[in-house]
Design goal:
Oligomer: heterodimer
Strand content of chain A: over 45%
Radius of gyration of chain B: 13 Å
Largest sheet of chain A: 6 strands, mixed
Strand content of chain B: over 45%
Distance between the termini of chain A: 38 Å
Structural class of chain B: mainly beta
Largest interface: A-B, 26 and 25 residues
Radius of gyration of chain A: 14 Å
Number of helices of chain A: 0
Number of helices of chain B: 0
Number of strands of chain A: 11
Largest sheet of chain B: 7 strands, mixed
Shape of chain A: globular
Chain lengths: 114, 112
């Protein structure tokens, strides 16, 4: 399995601070994605970074990818209370039968205190 | 308009019953998925369905069967429900492989 593992499992910060979450995975990938899940809701796609990219930005989000270390990080700058959610990394890979499956990590639960 | 919609949102039923969960996407995507999220928030792929090709995760019991009447719908039928089936089930869709997935808001299944 090339399941991603997020670190830390839980993170609590004050509004305005930056939040950094890490993801490690086991095998080679085509791309890595980050998703957010608010309580009681479905996952929402945040950003996709390809295996040949090292860094990507989207608004207050910054994602890095180090394929040599098989790890990625998600940085949320100037956090807001609305950023409170669980964040998941997801890796892809061909099972060998032409199928496409996303494998999700266990998530980081972020709490932003107003 | 909701992009990926699932019904029902909550499903409470007894062990041994058969139930279905419906999923519809209005994004024109060609690939749909079913996931199971357990109480620890671990999300696991159950099925993916692309151009009438069904890919099954081998760990999924054959009591679970996806049914796709057309490209916009992928329903999940579960036979002989067991206590361990209690979870939140998510439908998702994407346009092609290796693309971001759009999720529904889930169906919370509780087995009594």
């Amino acid at each position: 399995s090339q399941q991603g593992e997020e670190d830390p499992q839980a993170l609590s910060i004050q509004e305005g601070e930056n939040a950094t979450m890490n993801c490690s995975y086991k095998t080679s990938i085509n791309n890595l994605q980050w998703y957010r899940q608010n309580s009681g809701r479905g996952l929402v796609h945040l950003i996709l970074i390809r295996s040949n990219e090292r860094e990507k930005h989207s608004g207050r989000l910054r994602v890095t990818l180090d394929t040599s270390k098989k790890s990625s990080s998600l940085l949320i700058t100037a956090s807001r209370a609305a950023d409170t959610a669980s964040y998941f990394c997801a890796t892809d890979g061909d099972s060998g039968a032409g199928s496409y499956q996303l494998t999700f990590g266990k998530g980081t639960k972020l709490s932003v205190i107003p | 308009d909701t992009a990926v919609s699932q019904t029902p949102k909550y499903l409470v039923t007894q062990m041994g019953n058969d139930k279905s969960i419906k999923c519809e996407q209005n994004l024109g995507h060609d690939t749909m998925y079913w996931y199971k999220q357990d109480s620890k928030k671990f999300l696991k792929i159950m099925f993916s369905y692309n151009n009438k090709e069904l890919i099954i995760n081998e760990t999924v019991p054959n009591r679970f069967s996806p049914k796709s009447p057309d490209k916009a719908h992928l329903n999940l039928h579960i036979n002989s429900l067991e206590l361990g089936d209690s979870a939140v089930y998510f439908c998702a869709s994407s346009q092609g492989t290796y693309q971001p997935q759009h999720f529904g808001d889930g169906t919370r299944l509780s087995i009594l």
